[in-house]
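S2.1 Query sequence (Beta-carotene ketolase (CrtW type))
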Amino acid sequence: MLGTQSKTGIIIAFIVISLWCLCIFSLMSWEINFKNPLLYFFILVQMHLYTGLFITAHDAMHGTVSSSRTINNAIGQICTALYACFPFSSLNNKHHEHHKYVHTDKDPDYSEGNFFIWYLNFIKQYLSWWQVVLMALIFNLLKTWVPELNLFLFWVLPSLLSTLQLFYFGTWLPHHGEHTNKHQSGSQSKNHILAFLSCYFFGYHYEHHDSPGTPWWKLWELKKS
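Output structure tokens follow.
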């Protein structure tokens, strides 16, 4: 039997995936007008929903989407596939290495150098050439039915912006520089609205490392200051 938190986790994951699907299918036929401010708003909405897919997959990596391992991993794989054709198992292994070896040479998320060098190394750790080829094939297949500009603005661009959002709030801000606490992690100042809008509370990063079994939608409860 699934517990209450497990059922809630599945429902929230379903909502995130459904909103992403609803928005992207609606926007594929939307008439592009660069003078319309809604265009830029929808790009940001799509970026945030892409980030939601990844954060949901991240919860699955910690087994917090569902108490059923089969359901949990299936939802994780759906989210990583929709995000950028990622294999869930590979991301899962690397993420647990990050938690085990945080802020060391063995940490796949850690890098020396400035923001841009770290970001490029971060992308290289997770993105493979076969993914790029597969995404290119999907793009060229979809443009048979969908305007190419719509594909770029609402499918390609938001996913790229989402990688910056995830990296900045989930890796760079909490992990660059030196930290003296046991998790070698910083944390965003307490502001639940900004924390949700910026990265689904993932900026409360020390709290996440301190309680990785807490799903994103309950992480705000752990924030003390």
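The chain has one domain: 4-222. Residues 4-222 form one domain.
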